[in-house]
Amino acid sequence: MDFITRTKPWFLTGEGALQEGVSKKPTPFKGGSTASIALISTPTATPFWDPKTSATLITAHIGDTRILLSSASTGLALPLTTNHHPSSPTESRRLRRYATAFVSDSFGEERFGVLANTRSFGDVSQKRLGVSAEPEVYRRELEPSEYAFIVLMSDGISGILTDQEIVDIVKECRTPDEGARELVEFAEEVTTEGDNATAVVVRLGGWDQRTEGGEGFMGTKDLRAWRRDEALAGSRGRRM
Fold first, then answer.
1. Are 219 and 163 within one domain?
2. How far apart are the C-alpha atoms of 143 and 175, rounded to whole Å?
3. Any idea what the CATH number is for the domain that residue 220 is in?
4. What is the pLDDT of residue 120?
5. Which of 79-93, 194-208, 221-235 has the lowest average pLDDT?
6. Which of these, 42, 44, 135, 191, has the minimum number of CB atoms within 10 Å of its CB?
7. Strand 32-33 and strand 110-112: pairing?
8. Where is the PPM-type phosphatase domain (predicted)?
9. Following DSSP, what letter does each residue of 45-75 receive, concatenated?
10. Domain for residue 33, yes or no?
């Protein structure tokens, strides 16, 4: 399993900061977090990445981090999570029980209260509005070599790129480690939002067939080239 992350540094300031030589009571953390996890098991001692073995995949998800599978036969991305946002019909129905009002921010992103996510760890002050830490849990049986790899990522990647772009970038790489690095670097290259970009790529039994299904990695090549051109043009404009 390969884990690559890039994030801007943050600092504790204001009332939560500790001044040198001054002892203060700790301030309770008021923030929250999202999470996506994947558990893979096999019926025998054979590792799950062996091309001849089947496996069971269980995913648990809270928030807007994301998990994708890449089909070895079709080359298509298969999402295993949905974003827990107010725009989700399931989440919207759930939150209506709390008489929650939704608003759209200046970027057009729907929010309730001060949050964009309807499920998260922490965010204690928002629990009364319906924010839940209960994950969505799913189980999926994987046939031998059915899928090439699995990708887990933060919204600094999934909020910028389409699902198919994400798996196509990984397909071009020689190793899962390289795929995770390329995902993070490409997301940082084509956006100025500066959100946390984290990626985990896990090899599955169909890894060696990752470029054979469908259009291989060529299906989104033009779109990715366009993103690069737009980012470069924007960078030039800001320097003028």
1. yes
2. 22
3. 3.60.40.10
4. 77
5. 79-93
6. 44
7. unpaired
8. 1-204
9. SS-TT-TT--EEEEEEEESS-EEEEEETTT-
10. no
Euclidean distance between the first and final Cα of the chain, in Å?
Answer: 43
**209 and 95 belong to one structural domain:** no
Q: Give the model confidence (pLDDT) of 7-43 as tens digits.
A: 433 333 333 333 444 456 777 667 777 889 999 999 9
Q: Among residues 96, 131, 166, which one ends one of the domains?
A: 131
Give the tens place of pLDDT for each residue, 127-154: 777 777 778 899 999 999 999 999 999 9
Residue 206 has pLDDT above 90, yes or no: yes
Please indicate, yes or no, if residue 136 is contained in any of the structural domains.
no
Length in residues, the chain:
240
Question: How confident is the model over 65-110, as pLDDT tens digits?
Answer: 899 999 999 999 999 998 877 777 776 777 777 655 555 555 555 5
148 with 205, same domain: the answer is yes
Number of domains observed in the structure of the chain: 2
Domain extent at residue 174: 43-82+144-233
Which band of pLDDT confidence, cut at 50, 70 and 90, is reported for residue 235?
Answer: low
77 and 152 assigned to the same domain? yes
Pairs from 110-115 (Cβ < 8 Å, separation ≥ 24):
110/85, 110/86, 111/86, 112/86, 115/32
- Count the neighbouring beta carbons within 10 Å of the beta carbon of residue 26: 7
Asked whether residue 139 is domain-assigned, the answer is: no
Measured distance CA(151)–CA(170) in Å, rounded: 9
**pTM (predicted TM-score):** 0.78
